[in-house]
Each structure stands twice: as structure tokens, then as C-alpha cells.
User: Which sequence fits this backbone?
């Protein structure tokens, strides 16, 4: 992951070339001690010259899981955050880079670290202690929001592709995204992980949701965001299978202060960072800080939402509320019985009209399970007239022996499906039933005698009433 990040940030440099300010600054690497004796490695940027009365506003940048401050240094230097306007601090999170300690996945110890970093910066005489902002991506975004609800007095906050409800993100409907959890765990060397994480991962993969929920809740900000009046800018990916749109949209609805939600092309797989709209997004983020930390004129209402088109062309329409959707229902008739390595594959007629899915599709299907069958996973794909296959979404639920109707809520995404496309619904014990490369839900062991029968499936697709992606020029 670190190497991929460096490649991505090199692309950011290319996207933003020439936009960094010409002003000079002093750059210093340093170590900040925590109250448990762990040393946190940091880089400090200070504008040259005398500070203004009351001190400069400041920004703190927090990197993603298995990342480092070096990546954030590339970002802040290329995107023009360093220069005459802000003191900027980047740091290696505990257990990352040159910092000591062990990774606890944004738990209480990391919140204490972030609190100490803010206090250290606020104590500097050249910093305005009431005008310190925080920017965090993925793991770093979780840390920013968790510290915010813990009482760190950030003056403004910006997050990208992160979570507000870690339990919902990792275990929607009680079935863990086992492939993603295994990938996240493997991205950090075992020697740098808190030993308690091994038990959490084992419980998650074993389906022991009751043991994992308290751990996830302790690392989630959503339930406490209703009391927050700090200006918060949330950026989520249209197609992010780790942290879906709901991680931002639910937070947007609860926050009480100035807030913005941008749904764009960046994100975890199958999206990327950077993306075609990264330069635009970084400009919006900089403007957010300028407004609430430097007093620049406001250009957005108190609540603002934007959804970028898949064919981003540089223009985005901002609204005051989440976009409205209309459901489209598609039936997939049939009856199929299969064992763990089997699957049911159902295909639709061609879509008469283009559809821009926004939200969580649902699949309702009758099932009869026996022999210890424990889960059902649904994967939705679309094949365009041009032959391109689009992985639309996926989801799963735990089930037990017996007959019942289940509703599978697929991941919350925004995906444009052109007119004339055929939808394919694959039902199985894992996402690999659709493709061996689809590792969202792994095919974990079940008894050899396990069987499941599935009947007619009914798919409900939430589509934007006012699509933002133009059908012409797409796929």
C-alpha cells in the first residue's frame, strides 16, 4: 500500500503542477512525545516572516492505514497548503513510519495521540489556537472524526473516503466483508499491530458479531455527531466498497454546523485516489479551510451536497440536500439449489433507459438452507451493449437452517448503467461465486453437507431522479 500511495501522490503532483505558491517556508522534522513515552514523528511547515497578530492558522494532516507522513508531505506541498497562510503539521500515526507504538485502528490510544498533537500545536506562540484545522484520509479521516467527537476543538475538519460507523462499514447486516478485513490487517506488519487485533479479526471472520460490535463502536463517531457544530467537509467515493456513501451521508444528516458532502470519483477499490476530479476536490477542501480558519467569504450554504458525474468534466452542481431517488424493480425468476461451490446466476432483459444508481440496492429472495449453510452473498453486475462488465455492488447476510425470505442490502454506491445493459445477479456463498478476483466476501469454510435453495429474486434499485452523468460518451 505505501508504494501505491506514492504512485498515486505522484499523480496528484502532476494534476496540481504549478499551483503551489511561490512563497517560501521553513520545514522541520521533529518528534513529539506522548504521555505513555511513545515518540510520534512529525514534519512542521512554518511560513517565513513574522506571524500575524494572534498567530497563523494551522492545519494537521493525517494519513491512511499503512501510510506515512511522507505521503502527506507530498500532498501538502503539491496542493498549495504550505506557504504564507498556514502552519502545517504532518505526522506518522502510532505504529506507522518513524513513530513508535502499535497500531490499534484508531482506538482510544490513537485519539489520545491526536489530542496531544493538537495541544502541542496550539501551545506554539506562532499558532492561533482556536484556528487549527484537521484533514484526514481513510484511516486518518476516522482519527479526525473520532478526535472531534472526543472533544478536540478543531476549527474546521475535512475528511476523505473514511468511516463514521466502523461496524456498518466492515460488517453490514452482520456479515463481515472478510476479504477487505483480511487485506486491511495484512497491510500492517504483525510486529506493529496491537496484539488485541488478532482476537478481533478472528471473531469477525468466525461471524461473532456480538464480540466485534463494542470494538467497532468505540472507533465510530456517528452516534455522537449530532452535538457537533464544527464545520465539517466530507468527501466519499461514488464507488468505494470499503466505506460507502452512507458513511458520509448519515454524518451529513446528523451534523449541526456548516457541513458539506462531496460524492466523487476518488475512493478505495474499485475507485482510486487520485482520480479525474482530485484537483477540483482539493480546491474545494482548501476553500473550506480558508473560509472557516482565515475568514474568506463563504461560497456555499450552511449545508451543501454535490455528486460528481462519472464522466467528470470540471463542473459540479452543489445542492442543499441529498439527491432524491426513485426505485426501479427487476425480477429474476427461477429456483436453484447448490452447495458451497455452486451458485445461481440470473440475468435480466436489456434496460430500456439508462439508470444512475445512488444508494443501496436490495435483493429480496426466498431461501431454504440446510446442513449448516451459514450465509448468502449477492453480487450485481451489468454488461453494456459494448460488452463491458460493470461491478455494480454486492452484499451478504448470515442465514441459518430453515426456510425464510431474506433481504440483502447491497453496498451503498453511485453507479451509472447505460441503456441497453443487461443486469446479472449472482447468488452464492461468497463474492468469488461471481468472479475469482472478487474478494469482497471470502469463501470461508462451511460443512460439506451444507445446501441452499433460492427462489425468485426481486431487485430494487434506487436511481437518481435527476442523473448527473450524461449518457453520451459513457462506456
Assistant:
Amino acid at each position: 500500500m505505501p508504494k501505491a500511495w506514492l504512485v498515486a501522490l505522484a499523480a496528484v503532483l502532476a494534476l496540481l503542477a504549478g499551483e503551489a505558491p511561490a512563497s517560501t517556508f521553513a520545514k522541520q522534522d521533529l518528534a513529539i512525545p506522548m504521555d505513555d513515552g511513545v515518540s510520534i514523528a512529525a514534519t512542521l511547515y512554518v511560513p517565513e516572516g513574522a506571524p500575524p497578530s494572534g498567530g497563523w492558522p494551522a492545519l494537521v494532516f493525517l494519513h491512511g492505514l499503512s501510510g506515512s507522513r511522507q505521503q502527506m508531505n507530498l500532498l501538502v506541498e503539491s496542493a498549495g497548503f504550505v506557504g504564507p497562510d498556514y502552519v502545517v503539521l504532518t505526522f506518522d500515526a502510532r505504529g506507522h513510519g518513524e513513530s513508535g507504538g502499535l497500531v490499534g485502528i484508531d482506538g482510544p490510544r490513537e485519539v489520545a495521540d491526536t489530542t496531544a498533537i493538537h495541544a502541542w500545536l496550539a501551545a506554539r506562540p506562532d499558532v492561533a489556537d482556536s484556528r487549527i484545522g484537521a484533514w484526514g484520509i481513510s484511516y486518518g479521516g476516522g482519527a479526525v472524526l473520532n478526535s472531534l467527537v472526543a472533544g478536540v476543538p478543531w476549527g474546521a475538519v475535512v475528511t476523505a473516503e473514511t468511516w463514521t460507523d466502523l461496524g456498518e462499514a466492515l460488517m453490514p447486516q452482520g456479515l463481515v466483508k472478510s476479504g477487505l478485513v483480511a487485506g486491511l490487517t495484512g497491510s500492517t506488519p504483525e510486529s506493529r499491530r496491537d496484539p488485541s487485533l488478532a482476537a478481533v479479526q478472528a471473531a469477525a471472520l468466525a461471524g461473532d458479531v456480538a464480540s466485534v460490535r463494542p470494538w467497532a463502536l468505540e472507533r465510530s463517531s456517528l452516534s455522537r455527531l449530532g452535538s457537533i457544530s464544527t464545520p465539517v467537509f466530507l468527501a466519499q467515493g461514488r464507488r468505494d466498497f470499503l466505506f460507502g456513501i452512507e458513511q458520509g451521508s448519515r454524518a451529513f444528516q446528523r451534523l449541526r454546523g456548516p457541513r458539506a458532502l462531496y460524492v466523487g470519483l476518488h475512493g478505495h477499490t474499485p475507485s482510486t485516489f487520485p482520480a479525474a476530479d482530485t484537483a477540483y476536490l482539493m480546491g474545494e477542501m482548501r476553500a473550506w479551510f480558508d473560509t472557516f480558519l482565515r475568514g474568506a467569504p463563504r461560497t456555499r450554504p450552511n449545508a451543501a451536497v454535490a455528486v460528481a458525474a462519472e464522466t467528470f468534466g470540471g463542473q459540479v452542481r452543489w445542492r442543499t440536500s441529498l439527491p432524491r431517488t426513485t426505485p426501479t424493480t427487476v425480477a429474476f425468476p427461477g429456483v436453484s439449489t447448490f452447495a458451497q461451490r455452486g451458485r445461481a446466476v440470473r440475468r435480466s432483459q436489456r434496460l430500456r433507459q439508462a439508470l444512475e444508481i445512488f444508494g443501496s440496492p436490495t435483493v429480496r429472495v426466498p431461501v431454504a438452507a440446510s446442513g449448516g449453510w451459514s450465509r448468502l452473498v449477492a453480487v450485481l453486475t451489468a454488461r453494456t451493449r459494448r460488452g463491458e462488465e460493470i461491478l455494480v455492488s454486492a452484499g451478504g447476510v448470515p442465514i441459518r437452517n430453515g426456510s425464510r425470505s431474506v433481504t440483502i442490502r447491497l453496498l451503498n454506491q453511485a453507479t451509472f448503467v447505460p441503456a441497453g445493459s443487461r443486469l446479472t445477479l449472482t447468488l452464492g456463498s461468497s463474492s468469488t461465486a461471481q468472479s475469482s478476483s472478487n474478494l469482497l466476501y471470502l469463501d470461508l469454510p462451511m460443512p460439506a453437507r451444507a445446501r441452499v435453495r433460492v427462489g425468485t429474486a426481486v431487485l430494487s434499485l434506487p436511481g437518481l431522479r435527476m442523473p448527473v452523468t450524461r449518457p453520451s460518451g459513457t462506456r
User: Anything to note?
Assistant: The mean pLDDT is 94. The first helix runs from residue 2 to 15. Residues 232 and 259 are 5 Å apart (CA to CA).
